[in-house]
Design a protein that fits this description.
This protein has 100 residues and is mainly β. It contains 1 helix and 8 strands, in the order αββββββββ. It has a 6-stranded antiparallel sheet with strand order 6-7-1-2-5-8. It has a two-stranded antiparallel sheet with strand order 3-4.
């Protein structure tokens, strides 16, 4: 895990993720141009907030944990760059699911 991920603690039900890198070569060894390489919608959870706060002040914990592989929606999230690394912050409810 990067030093940035250890320093940044998401608030409420937000989740900090690092997207998987797009494949630049096929299984057969053919190098793909950037235009043909589709951005993957998989990511690894680096940090999670404490959860959603209910009206009584208690928290509903996030559904994912640090280290989980998650499926992201095609659009959404907030892109951030810290120390020349790209990360994304999503709300817990925006994540589509976990990958086994």
């Amino acid at each position: 895990m990067s030093a940035v991920a250890r320093r940044l603690k998401p608030l409420f039900d937000r989740v900090l993720v690092s997207k998987a890198i797009a494949e630049t070569k096929t299984a057969g060894g053919i190098i793909l141009p950037e235009a043909a390489a589709k951005a993957p919608n998989e990511a690894t959870v680096l940090a999670v907030g404490p959860g959603f706060r209910k009206e009584d002040g208690s928290y509903v914990a996030t559904a994912v944990a640090v280290g989980d592989k998650v499926l992201l929606p095609e659009y959404g999230g907030t892109a951030i760059t810290l120390d020349k690394e790209d990360f994304f912050i999503f709300r817990d409810s925006e994540l589509l699911g976990t990958l086994e």
